[in-house]
Write a structure and sequence with these properties.
The protein is about 20% helix and about 30% strand. By secondary structure, the chain is α/β, with parallel strands linked by helices. The structure holds zinc ion (ZN) (2 copies). One zinc ion binds near residues 72, 74, 157, 178 and 218. The site of one zinc ion (ZN) has 5 residues, from loops.
């Protein structure tokens, strides 16, 4: 039997703030946004600045049923939200999910807080799509239907964040950002989540040599990502959440270094598509 489509497209791979410069043309400058196709279903992870372009693309492809999952609501993961065309389309059905805030109606309330004065001119009432807001707790299993299985875990990040594993048609993809590794060893929650996965995308904001200057900023290193993949038998490792200051040249050299240690490594870039 032929395999169902299970693919990942990166629409934004930066962390912190978008960084479009002449030195970042190859990897791109948009912040976190990842599209995952599972058969006919479209899952989206985070709504950073890359989310706007994804919205236009989905319109062209006439895709009107979407699930949007948030790791957390730091600006770099939510800044594209009001600029996503499908939210204004009455023919679209959008299920929105978040699990890092342990309070009632957290997903819906955050949207209201974010799209409000003095930060934004209009509120989420301008959206015309059929939207459902779904709160869960990091660590819960989610079942969005169509044989898609989603597992989650809590990450070590200021204010909390959620990691996701998507199991579909015998394959698996893990989205693990933003998180800071712990000095006492590898994060057992993450190891359990990513066990034997086909691919993990991980918070590679820093290198081990840079990290001591950024303790408690909530981010990890590409070297830690490799240790996790090695320990958990993950096949492919996507370096993600690149620092805004990383030039194409620097990311090329980090990718070379990472491949030398773990051949399944690659630096994610805006526009890149990976078939699982
Ligand atoms: Zn971030
Ligand atoms: Zn963050």
């Amino acid at each position: 039997m032929s395999k169902l489509n299970f693919s990942v497209k990166f629409w934004g791979t930066r962390g912190a703030v978008s960084s479009p410069t002449r030195q970042s043309v190859k990897y791109g400058g948009n912040t976190s946004c990842v599209e995952v196709q599972c058969g006919d279903r479209t899952l989206i992870f985070d709504a950073g600045s890359g989310f706007r372009l994804l919205g236009l693309d989905l319109q062209e492809r006439k895709i009107t049923n979407l699930d949007l999952f948030f790791t957390h609501f730091h600006y770099d993961h939510i800044c594209g939200l009001p600029f996503f065309a499908p939210l204004y389309n009455p023919g679209c059905k959008i299920q929105i999910w978040s699990g890092h805030l342990d309070r009632k109606n957290a997903t819906r309330e955050t949207f209201k807080d974010y799209m409000n004065h003095p930060f934004f001119p209009v509120g989420p009432e301008v959206f015309n799509a059929h939207i459902s807001y779904n709160d869960f707790r990091s660590g819960d299993d989610l079942a969005p239907g169509d044989n898609i299985e989603i597992k989650t875990c809590k990450l070590n990040h200021p204010g909390g964040a959620t990691a996701y594993r998507i199991n579909f048609d015998g394959r698996s993809f893990c989205y693990v950002t933003d998180t800071e590794h712990k000095p006492e060893g590898l994060d057992t929650n993450i190891l359990q989540l990513i066990d034997s996965a086909d691919m993990m995308v991980y918070d590679a904001t820093y290198s081990d040599s840079e990290y001591p200057n950024y303790i408690d900023f909530g981010h990890s290193t590409w070297e830690q990502g490799i240790l996790l993949c090695q320990k958990a038998n993950v096949k492919k490792f996507g370096l993600f959440h690149h620092r805004p200051s990383r030039t194409d040249e620097k990311l090329d050299s980090i990718e070379r270094e990472a491949k030398a240690v773990f051949p399944g490594s690659f630096a994610t870039s805006d526009g890149l598509v990976i078939k699982l």
